[in-house]
Hints:
By secondary structure, the protein is an alpha+beta fold. The protein has helices at about 80-90, 115-120, 125-130, 190-210; strands at about 25-30, 50-55, 60, 70, 140-145, 155-160, 165-170, 175, 180. A four-stranded antiparallel sheet has the order 1-2-3-9. The relative contact order is 0.18.
Amino acid sequence: MRLNHQAAAAVTMAALMGVAGTAQAAFQGRDNTGAPSATCTATGPGKCTFFYDTTLGITILNNWNLGTGTWSASAALGSAQALAATAGLAASGLTGWVLPTGDNEAAVGAQNQFLSIWNSVGSSFAGLSGQFDGVQAGNNHWSGSVFASIPSLAWRFSASNGNQFIDGQSASFFAVAVRPGDIAAAIPEPQTYVLMLMGLGGLLLARRKRAR
């Protein structure tokens, strides 16, 4: 579904609720159009499609059960990277979706997004599964980070306890899709489309007059 970005800039979320099933401290809900929503939840009929992580400055696809794949720097068919890219594109109509970073040798932040997310939900499985849809105990998720010392290995994240380990890239683990920036700001406002169409119409009319 292509995002229909209506009233995205008009809705500002204040402090978010910290109970299971609702957006927690670092996360702002985004509905299926990409617009901010103070009422969408982690699961259920009114669940958010995305969450904007205000700490990391990334949008996270709410579905944490996208399937499993191997690790591939080129997002080869069947890889976790390909699953993340495909799921993000299908949900938003936008490209640029990748796996979160997860280097256990790095501090929270751009190089270890998984650890930052884990800390933001209270460093517990209950917090993680209360924040995002489809989180399963025992699931391991590929990060987008290779193991610097041995490039044939990559880092993975455990949904059960937040631990990060290295594994061979041929192993099959789950995918999580993230995208830089706030998806609510990635789509032009409806009036922008109107102005673009008006400009295109004026250009075509001018060309017709010159052709006469």
